[in-house]
């Protein structure tokens, strides 16, 4: 199965390059670590001037741009990039939830807008959609593992030809497992990726969602989703019925 972030449409293994312009260290590291694991090449800039220089020098495939930067706001960065004539997809991040801020970001030339806090899986879905629309990457929209078929465009899941009804988080959980078979995910990692990096609740919510997903998949021993006691969960396609 193709790793995320690699464009294989021409038989090339060139990594899709993402520029992150974000001054908050926690979020910048969260994005850098997660995106690199998904196979993307990542450059981080901590201010607007460095970000503008990096965009000009490296010509990334996509830019993740925070609105609140120490030297210039993200709206101005976005406007400057568009005045240069760049068509690079821009995904803006902000802690502001007002519609006016979203409108201003889109009017400045942003292609999409994500409000903090956000789940990493939602961010990945937005990135994939922007790359597809821009023609900068060709991704399969269908994942197949054993008798499970998951379509990322229609958000439909079938097992043995039967359509399953999953909640949004159950869908994201299954997609994550299917993209990374045999990788052991800690509960903390799953919580960060599906609920957001600053989710205040307990990690046992992960166990509840895994249990519901197993029930809907009819996942009985030997299981597809295996518990690693004291650690977390991993998906073993060869272990299911």
- CATH topology term of the largest domain: Rossmann fold
CATH class of the largest domain: Alpha Beta
Note the total helix count.
8
Contiguous low-pLDDT stretches (5 residues minimum) are 1-13
Distance between the termini: 20 Å
Q: What is the count of distinct domains?
A: 2
Bulk shape = elongated
Short note summarizing the structure:
The chain is α/β, with parallel strands linked by helices. It has helices spanning 25-37, 48-58, 74-83, 99-107, 120-134, 168-179, 187-195, 204-217, and strands spanning 17-21, 41-45, 62-66, 90-94, 112-115, 142-145, 148-151, 156-159, 162-164, 185-186, 225-228, 232-235.
Task: Please tag this protein with its features.
elongated, five-stranded parallel β-sheet, Rossmann fold, alpha/beta, 241 residues, 8 helices, Arc Repressor Mutant, subunit A
Can you tell me about this structure?
With 241 residues, the protein is α/β, with parallel strands linked by helices. The chain folds into two domains: 17-134, Response regulator (Rossmann fold, 3-Layer(aba) Sandwich), CATH 3.40.50.2300; 142-239, Arc Repressor Mutant, subunit A (Orthogonal Bundle), CATH 1.10.10.10. Helix content is 39%, strand content 20%. It has eight helices and twelve strands. It has helices at residues 25-37, 48-58, 74-83, 99-107, 120-134, 168-179, 187-195, 204-217, and strands at residues 17-21, 41-45, 62-66, 90-94, 112-115, 142-145, 148-151, 156-159, 162-164, 185-186, 225-228, 232-235. A five-stranded parallel β-sheet has the order 2-1-3-4-5, with helices on both faces. The protein has a four-stranded antiparallel β-sheet with strand order 6-7-8-9, with helices on one face. Strands 10-12-11 form a three-stranded antiparallel β-sheet. Strand 6 and strand 7 (148-151) form a beta hairpin. The longest helix is centred in the middle third of the chain and has 15 residues, at 120-134. It is elongated and about 55 Å long. The protein starts with 16 loop residues before the first strand and ends in a 6-residue tail after the last strand. Residues 1-13 have low confidence and may be disordered.
